[in-house]
């Protein structure tokens, strides 16, 4: 399984004031909306077309669905608005609070999520996008982001945290459902967890999913050939992977959060898969 767990609302189910807020941002009322699946948020995710032909992507979530989701989306709005040109991310159009609802409006990205299982043809454009992110995002151009160590303190063991120094812009939540493939390259979406850290961190965490849901040997091949990771000591990468193993398995044992019914199962599956990958990487060579 990948990022699929939110019980998403649809455009037609959203309160009229939320529709009005989107009209205010776009300058024209929405006449067509296509709901999107994937991800863990319980909120609405809609590709919309306004009466004047404007196309956009709308996200809306309320505290009644999950008490943390609106503030997380507010953080996403703030970060996305601060991303400089050249970062492979959707453009920011506007955001509004409507009671306990948070509404975020972004440029529509005319693309599709990578297919699963991961294949080299889909992964190549994503690695190229991460190369561009590092080129544009080092030193980190977004102000007031936490360091990776700060963002993951209390989540990863100290040996892993000690290896997360760096000043590159890091997405920190890459998987297939947070990526879109377009004719001109890959785009990274959903930025609420962004931080400052090592240039290789996004690729490493994405490859955790590729190892679990990809062509055999693809994750290791990319890890040893990408310019982002090939010069990093193998045990550094393995220690950080093992830290995320601990993170996922610890989270999997916690109560199920409101509105996110399959999140803990995803975390369990990903943690167990990471345990297997770390075991293979640390196994004596034959």
UniProtKB/TrEMBL annotation:
Q: Which Pfam families match?
A: APH
What GO molecular function annotations does the UniProt record carry, in alphabetical order? protein kinase activity
> Locate the Aminoglycoside phosphotransferase domain: which residues?
118-219
Per the record, the coiled-coil ranges are none
Q: Which InterPro entries match?
A: Aminoglycoside_PTrfase, Kinase-like_dom_sf, Tyr_kinase_AS
Question: Which Gene3D superfamilies does the UniProt record give?
Answer: 3.90.1200.10
Give the protein name, as stated in the record: Aminoglycoside phosphotransferase domain-containing protein
Q: What is the lineage of its organism?
A: Bacteria, Bacillati, Actinomycetota, Actinomycetes, Kineosporiales
């Amino acid at each position: 399984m990948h990022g699929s767990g939110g019980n998403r609302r649809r455009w037609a189910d959203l309160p009229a004031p939320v529709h009005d807020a989107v009209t205010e941002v776009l300058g024209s009322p929405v006449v067509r909306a296509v709901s999107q699946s994937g991800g863990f948020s319980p909120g609405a995710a809609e590709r919309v077309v306004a009466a004047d032909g404007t196309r956009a992507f709308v996200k809306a979530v309320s505290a009644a669905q999950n008490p943390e989701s609106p503030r997380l989306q507010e953080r996403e709005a703030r970060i996305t608005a601060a991303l400089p040109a050249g970062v492979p991310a959707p453009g920011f159009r506007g955001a509004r609070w409507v009671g306990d609802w948070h509404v975020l409006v972004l440029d529509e990205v005319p693309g599709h999520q990578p297919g699963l299982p991961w294949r080299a043809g889909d992964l190549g454009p994503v690695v190229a996008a991460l190369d561009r992110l590092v080129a544009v995002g080092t030193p980190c151009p977004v102000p007031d982001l936490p360091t990776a160590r700060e963002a993951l303190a209390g989540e990863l063991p100290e040996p892993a945290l000690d290896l997360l120094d760096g000043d590159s812009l890091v997405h920190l939540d890459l998987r297939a459902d947070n990526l879109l493939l377009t004719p001109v390259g890959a785009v990274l979406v959903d930025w609420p967890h962004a931080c400052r850290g090592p240039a290789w961190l996004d690729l490493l965490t994405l490859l955790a999913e590729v190892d679990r849901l990809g062509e055999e040997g693809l994750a290791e091949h990319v890890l040893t050939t990408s310019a982002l990771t090939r010069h990093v000591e193998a045990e550094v990468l393995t220690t950080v992977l093992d830290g995320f193993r601990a993170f996922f398995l610890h989270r999997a044992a916690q109560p199920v959060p409101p509105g996110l019914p399959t999140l803990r199962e995803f975390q369990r599956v990903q943690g167990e898969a990471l345990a297997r990958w770390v075991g293979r990487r640390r196994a004596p060579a034959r």
